[in-house]
Input
Amino acid sequence: MNYSRVSDLDIEALRKIIPAERFFYPTTKHYDHDQFNYKKSAPDVAVQPVSNDEVSAVMKYANGHQIPVTVRGNATGLMGANISVDHGIAIDMIKMNKVLEYDPDSLTMTVQAGVRIRDIDEYLADQPFIYVPSPAMKWAAIGGNLNTNAGGMKAVKYGTTREHVRGLTAILADGTQIHCSHKTVKNSSGYDIKDLIIGSEGTLAVVTEVVLRLIPRPRVEKTMLLSFPDIERAISCVPKIFAAGLTPTSVEYFSEEDVDKWEEYSVKKFPVKDGSGYLMIGFDGNDDKLVDGELAEVVNVANENDVSNTLVLTADDPNSQAVWDARSEFETAIQQTTTKMDEADIVVPINKIPLVLKEVRKISEKENVRLPNFGHAGDGNLHIYICCDDYSDDEFAVKKDHVFKALYQVAKDSDGEMSGEHGIGFARKDYFEDFYGSDYVELMSRIKLAFDPNLILNPDKIFPLHVSKQENEVVKN
Output
């Protein structure tokens, strides 16, 4: 699409909407990248609204002048979804960071989209209710989590962000404010626009407020750390745990290599060093004896897979914090070992994980590139990191392309999906149609046009639009 660059007249008009202390022109380097630094592209101007009305006014102006808009939170994304590849306006939601309402009687909490996950945790720290989704990046904004339908480490029992959003307020491309659902548990009232916006990576609307579902805080939380002689025996244990009738909150897998890299990065010692494959399994509940009974069942299952060591950790055990810190910092630890890094977060049925990991090793050997990995064994979401090491930028670009194509083919052959929680963004857009097919992309293009006829919201993300440049109509390839 041909978008307008922001002109002096546009700057003058936008300054009337957003005051100088929250207006950035020209923009700083802060706005030209996300956490992975995969691609750099700066917006012409960045604004920090504090209200729905300000967001609405900015969108109305941008839509009327064909200026692209990209929404940002704390820039913890990895797929380039918040990068302004077509420049234009960046709406920085960092100032919309208030808790608007805590309503324990309806088991909800309403927040602005710029509130961080850690802010929510701190707000609820002395309350009998919690917000469950637990992504590793606690400084991520809830709006970003919603836009990628982030899962985190408790998705096995509690589901992803989508299951914990009761309602939302969003601003459409033309500035219209809409309210999708509210505080009810059920809704069978027409199309569920809320769930359509969740996971759309900012391409359909600007989410400004979110009604979160809360649950009673479990009285007991325990983690079991299991080590196995190899990763295959660790992973093959997972379906057996579910077959035993157990419902853990989390089931994480990682390798001895991941632990070694974390120890080098953190200058700390991991509580258990006995084996090559690890499972970290969490349970919660309100009865200590029942939770202990579930942990004992896990040990019985693990013994059938030649478990090397078992360690039970209560929530207040210092070793428990070390284990969870390690799991949260594996990505950063791996990033410190290489000159550049990229990631695939494919998701497959849990029984296919061992086969997928074998294919990952084959791809690593064929392409002669390191592919360290760990992930959510309980829901099949694998985080596979492609390390540049000594390759030049051009060589690494070729290696990455080969690896991504191979990994996505493995995921497709395994009845999986391209992404479990990080989204597609700009970084993986070019692989999307090959994975899902042109008919699927055509349908998504129609949805995009219904929300955003001028195609100004977060362009060049997720999938290639099947749209005529002249008429903005969906066309078949």
